[in-house]
Amino acid sequence: MDQPAPTDDDDHGLISPITLPRDGHAPGNVSGPDEYDSYFRIRHADTSPTAWAHHVLSVTSSVTDDLPATSLDQEERADLLDGIALLLQHTVRLTAAEPQR
User: What is the number of other CB atoms lying within 10 angstroms of the CB of residue 87?
Assistant: First the structure.
């Protein structure tokens, strides 16, 4: 389902939105998925729900441990913690659905 194009009124006090092609990359082959994955250290592989849960717990623990030292305000911290809660809920659902050994 296509979303309406953002307007300048949709910036929520942030920077104005930009328009990208549907593939999400800048036109002209400036960069691609490999560069993005390399920059953010993303690896693509089949992962079991249990392995995924271990990675999620490791990353979310590191993020929450670092949170007090950030310059994020209370609202930004709350948004980040909301996102972490959603990620953890998804992870629990995946592992709960995994067949028991």
Answer: 13
> Domain range for residue 14?
8-97
Residue 87 and residue 57 in contact, taking contact as beta carbons nearer than 8 Å: no
Residue 1 falls within a domain, yes or no?
A: no
Q: How confident is the model at residue 80 (pLDDT cuts 50, 70, 90)?
A: very high
The model's pTM is 0.60
Question: Is residue 24 situated within a structural domain?
Answer: yes
Number of domains in the chain: 1
Does the residue 41 lie in any domain?
Answer: yes
What distance in Å separates the CA atoms of residue 18 and residue 11, rounded to the nearest whole number? 10
C-alpha triplet 80, 84, 90: angle, nearest 5°: 145
pLDDT of 9 above 70 = no
Instruction: Using a pLDDT cut of 70, give the percent of the chain over it.
Output: 69
